[in-house]
TrEMBL record:
GO terms for molecular function: FAD binding; oxidoreductase activity. This is FAD-binding PCMH-type domain-containing protein. PANTHER family: OS08G0158400 PROTEIN (PTHR32448). Coiled coil: none annotated. Its cofactor is FAD. InterPro entries: BBE, FAD-bd_PCMH, FAD-bd_PCMH-like_sf, FAD-bd_PCMH_sub1, FAD-bd_PCMH_sub2, Oxid_FAD_bind_N. One of its GO terms (biological process) is cannabinoid biosynthetic process. Residues 49-223 form the FAD-binding PCMH-type domain. It comes from Canavalia gladiata (Sword bean). Gene3D superfamilies: 3.30.465.10, 3.40.462.20, Uridine Diphospho-n-acetylenolpyruvylglucosamine Reductase, domain 2. The keyword Transport does not apply. Keywords: Disulfide bond, FAD, Flavoprotein, Glycoprotein, Signal. Belongs to the oxygen-dependent FAD-linked oxidoreductase family.
Length: 508
């Protein structure tokens, strides 16, 4: 069927501006593998047994996307759309059924309108490219999206998207004001022509269930010309557990310009040199040092922050700092590829009441289990602007009442199925250990930290009830409305995957 599909693409697009033949890659094409691998971010999905697309299309214009959608339906192919390829389960480029990848690597245009504090950004651009383009136009405009510069706009914005400005300005998706997308009928829509329901759904409900999102219009936000950053490590011997105890009670109530997240991993004790747990308090304050120090002394003296721990810089430099690029030219933010890829598995949780110290003390030994390379548990505070936005404003529902968010991560370099199984099993045990201390009914999860363990559709085929197993965890009370929008715009469930929103009229 894929030959017929490719023929259909040629027929369909023979009178478009640019020929489609240069942007269609079948498995025999010599560039196929390099294009497929270019944005895979997790070595788990680069093995010989990973299911691969029959065809990759790298559209240059909207008509190429339209042709791919129409021809895929005619010739029984599924579509996976890839922007930055960061999906934690590889859903943008893996499928068990015959499929084509629409890779938006050429849709990377960014137009910043500093005068009106807005920008149009195409889905295939990365957040690093967006930050770079904003900083080229203004030193006092920024955008509240994620931390890792190679993350793609398409997946990130359609699943939420947060970083160090979240407590002040909410999620990336909260700051989207218009979009352009192609729907299942091949129609090119904007906010006005798609209507408010679909516009609501694709800001946090995941784009892949609804069509291919081409570009986003965003509202840029004010950042001061000077911000202050620090990254302060504390080991168990330096009272890390007590400091985390206090952090859990204050971090979501601090001045909304201040975000202090914690990365908890393995470290070594300064006193004994022995392995220990280390909590690194990593922070960006959208203000200067003279304001930050008294704020910390008053609200969080347990951390013992001193002026020497902190550095003042511009907002774009803080982006570089958090990405580990300090001292390099800002142009590195435009690089799309991540060096040093490893294997990884991630999960997420939300916390409404502080985790007891005894529970944390029970968690620490798990970091040192045999054969577990690099576990990192990350706590990110909520509060501030997140408390003010209603749970149904966009599909992302976890607002007031959530004091912080956990990302459970484990990274490893050892190859082979046994190592993968060992690390994934470890992650599942940590997740089950944490169950009593995190949100319940549903046990909340963040769509952008995709986790197929929480439930899947069978090859994309599912009922509303079955899909509710995972859907309520990501979307809670917004899941029903997402299914209603899906039913309206794609009733036959063409755009489907292991965790796509189900149509209420069809299981297929
Ligand atoms: P990818 O291309 O893999 O797409 C993800 C999903 O969106 C897939 O289902 C895909 O089909 C769909 N999709 C993509 N483009 C689409 C389009 N144009 N139209 C329709 N559907 C589309 N998150 C966060 O909030 N803050 C952070 O700081 C980070 N940091 C981070 C670091 C690293 C190293 C990784 C691997 C991930 C993160 N994330 C994150 C998570 C990230 O936000 C999440 O993986 C995003 O979905 C990634 O978007 P991409 O476009 O890169 O992914």
């Amino acid at each position: 069927t894929h030959e017929k599909f490719v023929q259909c693409l040629f027929n369909y697009s023979h009178n478009t501006n640019t020929s489609i033949s240069n942007i269609v890659y079948t498995q025999t094409n010599s560039s196929y593998s390099s294009i497929l691998n270019a944005s895979i971010q997790n070595l788990r999905f680069t093995t010989n047994t990973t299911e691969k697309p029959l065809v990759i299309v790298t559209p240059l214009e909207v008509s190429h996307i339209q042709a791919t959608i129409i021809c895929s339906q005619r010739h029984g192919m599924q579509i996976r759309t890839r922007s930055g390829g960061h999906d934690y389960e590889g859903l943008s480029y893996i499928s068990e059924v015959p499929f084509v990848v629409i890779d938006l690597v050429n849709f990377i245009e960014i137009q910043v309108d500093a005068e009106n504090s807005t920008a149009w950004v195409q889905s295939g651009a990365t957040i690093g490219q967006l930050y770079y383009s904003i900083s080229e136009k203004s030193k006092t405009l920024g955008f509240p999206a994620g931390v890792c510069p190679t993350v793609g706009i398409g997946g990130h914005f359609s699943g939420g998207g947060y970083g160090f400005l979240m407590r002040k300005y909410g999620l990336a998706a909260d700051n989207v004001i218009d979009v352009q997308m192609v729907d299942v009928k091949g129609r090119f829509l904007d906010r006005k022509s798609m209507g408010e329901d679909l516009f609501w759904a694709i800001r946090g409900g995941g784009g892949a269930s609804f069509g291919v999102i081409v570009a986003w219009k965003i509202k840029l936000v004010q950042v001061p010309s000077t911000v202050t950053v620090f990254n302060v490590p504390r080991t168990l011997e330096q009272n890390a557990t007590n400091i985390i105890h206090k952090w859990q009670r204050v971090a979501s109530k601090l001045d909304e310009r201040l975000t202090i997240r914690i990365n908890i991993g393995k470290g070594s004790s300064a006193q004994t040199g022995n392995q220990t747990v280390q909590a690194s308090f990593e922070s960006m304050f959208a203000g200067d040092l003279d304001e930050l120090i008294p704020l910390m002394e008053k609200n969080f003296p347990e951390l013992g922050l001193v002026r020497e721990d902190c550095t003042e810089m511009s907002w774009i430099e803080s982006i570089m700092y958090m990405a580990g690029f300090s001292g390099q030219p800002t142009q590195v933010l435009r690089n799309r590829t991540q060096p040093n890829l490893v294997f990884s598995k991630n999960k997420s949780d939300y916390v409404k009441v502080p985790i007891p110290d005894a529970a944390l003390e029970g968690l620490w030994p798990m970091f040192f289990e045999d054969g577990i390379e690099s576990p990192v548990i990350q706590f990110t505070p909520y509060g501030g602007r997140m408390d003010e936005i209603s749970e149904s404003e966009i599909p992302f529902p976890y607002r007031s009442g959530n004091i912080f968010h956990i990302q459970h991560q484990v990274y490893w370099e050892e190859e082979g199925d046994e190592a993968t199984e060992r690390h994934i099993n470890w992650m599942r045990r940590v997740y089950s250990y944490m169950e009593p201390y995190v949100s319940k009914s549903p046990r909340a999860a963040y769509l952008n930290y995709r986790d197929l363990d929480i439930g899947v559709n069978n090859n994309g085929y599912t009922s509303y009830e079955q899909a509710s197993v995972w859907g309520l965890k990501y979307f809670n009370n917004n899941f029903r409305r997402l299914a209603e929008v899906k039913t309206k715009v794609d009733p036959r469930n063409f755009f489907r995957n292991e965790q796509s929103i189900p149509s209420l009229v069809s299981h297929g």
